[in-house]
Amino acid sequence: MIGGPHVMDKMAHRIRSADDGSASEAHVHTHNRLFIDGKWVEATGSSHTDVYDPVSGRISGRLIHAGQADLAAAVAASRAGFAAWRRRSAFNRCRIIRSAADLLRERAPHIASLVTREQGKPLKEAAIEIDLAAELLDWCAEEGRRAYGRLIPARGPGISQQVLREPVGPVAAFTPSSFPVSHAVRKIGAALAAGCTMVIKPAEETPETTSALADIFNDAGVPPGVLNLVYGDPAAVSEYLISHPFIRKVSFTGSARAGKNIAALAGIHMKRCTMELGGHAPAFIFDDADIDSAARLLAYSKYRNSGQACASPTRFLIQRGVYKAFTEKFIAEVKRIRVGNGRLSDTTMGPLLSAKRLCAVQALVGDAVERGARIETGGHRIGDAGHFLAPTVLTNVTADMQIMNEEPFGPVALLGVFDTIEEAIEEANRPPYGLASYAFTRSNATASLLSSELETGMLSINHLGLGLPETPYGGVKESGYGSEGGSEAIDDYLVTKFVSHATA
To answer: Is 276 assigned a catalytic role?
Structure first.
């Protein structure tokens, strides 16, 4: 147990107290608004999704699904909006997107409170997410102004040859609940900057948060039809939007399993895709590493958002010479984590999003223990309400354990030992994922070998350097393809047209 039974009892009491305070405010709200063609309209679907409070575990709202008529209206609005938006100058589009960034900063305290209430992460983490989202919008706006084509020297006189970069068209986008603001903004910012329009279906768990985003873009001056927001059954909405002839591109962030279905459907209809899927990130700690820095940074990154991050370090590969020292320091860092209601100022880790996620992580931990893993700390639910799981560290892990092959997407670190760098690289590349990797070493030769041999979309060495607006963000293998950061993010929303013109 973290800190022993006495501390655990205090933790559980603290969580229950926070829950009791929020329960008195709890009301089951009906969310029935969709943002279509520049205005809020009532959803016409006949089904709904229950929205749960992750702190209490109780139903806090009911989200009415979009009907097929709503989806048809959203696509039609997106098509009409595209005809005008693509003709706006890149400079004008930039000004509007920058205005949205400014509004996001102004409304950050309110939106952060919505994120914490709906998703569960601590207010400090929600504020960081919103600040990053505003920076993403600034970056996308400026990159949209620099989406240049080029001239090609012709082989004969009187011939001009040019390459034009044009917006691909209306986009269908799907975002998860783990980072409801920044994941949505990565797609919206890049698409709008390139001149595209969008129908976005965010996660049903965070409707108030993403509805607030729609208000921001509307208030910033985004014209009607350019951004449309719908909620509904994921399978039904994706089937309708992706198969619709007016939709020209698909952007999806979520699990590898769901992403494969989305990509397969898009392939049937020849729609280009950006797929940002799951990961199972290795973190290397070599004998020559700064152990204190590695333990501190990796503990923060691992348990951020309760481990519900696709780029979260999960498989810790520790060289034998520092295994004991790193493990002790890492566990000490984990025991400093304060679990509770994200609205409390001293909370550093909130609940998991849902009871389903909590059960899934517990099942993975249970399977690992049955196969010989050792729980060094955590491994159990905290309290009897909400979706709280103690920050967990497992040692003695082996490749046959389910948790070593399936993304845990929760607050669980898996610590293993290695002797040679070749052995560590083999284990890092073994699973089908390839999103993010981390390494701590003082050796340039080691860093160079990792850079060339790891099958990963992103690698951060001796610090946490992933996810900035100006850097590419995406993976390889079953972690997807395409990028949602850097100049590459805009490229995915542009098509190339070659024009060769011989003067008469």
So the answer is: yes
| Rounded-to-integer distance, Cα 275 and Cα 197, Å | 18
Tell the residue number behind the tokens 């039904």, with chain if given.
236
Q: How confident is the model at residue 504 (pLDDT cuts 50, 70, 90)?
A: confident
**Structural domains in the chain, sorted by start:** 26-277+486-496 (3.40.605.10), 281-456 (3.40.309.10)
DSSP string, 85-141: HTTS-HHHHHHHHHHHHHHHHHTHHHHHHHHHHHH---HHHHHHHHHHHHHHHHHHH
**Which is the catalytic residue, given 118, 205, 310, 407?**
310
Rounded Cα–Cα distance for residues 197 and 488 (Å): 18
Q: What is the pLDDT of residues 270-299, one digit of tens each?
A: 999 999 999 999 999 999 999 999 999 999
Residue 463 DSSP SS3: coil
State the maximum Cα–Cα separation within the chain, in Å, rounded to a whole number.
Answer: 89
Phi/psi of residue 376, nearest 5 degrees: -85, -30
d(CA 286, CA 321): 8
Give 304's DSSP letter. Answer: G
Q: Identify the pLDDT of residue 503.
A: 87
Active-site hit among 276, 376, 478, 484? 276
- Per DSSP, the three-state class of 261 is helix
Q: Is 310 assigned a catalytic role?
A: yes
Residue 3, Ramachandran bin (φ over 0: left; ψ between -120 and 50: alpha; else beta) = left
Phi-psi region for residue 205, left (φ > 0), alpha (ψ -120 to 50) or beta? alpha
Name the one residue in this structure whose structure tokens are 């097929």.
68
pTM of the model: 0.93
Q: Print the SS3 string covering 305-370.
A: HHHCCCCCEEEEEEEHHHHHHHHHHHHHHHCCCCECCCCCCCCCECCCCCHHHHHHHHHHHHHHHH
Q: Which residues contact 309 (CB under 8 A, 6 or more apart)?
A: 178, 179
Q: Which of the 8 DSSP states describes residue 66? A: P
Give percent helix, percent strand, percent coil of the chain, each to the nearest 5: 45, 20, 35
* Residue among 238, 240, 244, 235 nearest 269 (CA): 244
Token pair recorded at residue 324: 């004991």
Nearest to 300 by CA among 268, 334, 325: 334
Q: For the segment 194-228, what is each residue's pLDDT rounded down to a tens digit?
A: 999 999 999 999 999 999 999 999 999 999 999 99
Where are the strands (E) in 168-226, listed by range?
A: 171-174, 198-201
Q: pLDDT confidence of 29, banded at 50, 70, 90?
A: confident
Cβ–Cβ < 8 Å for 193, 94? yes
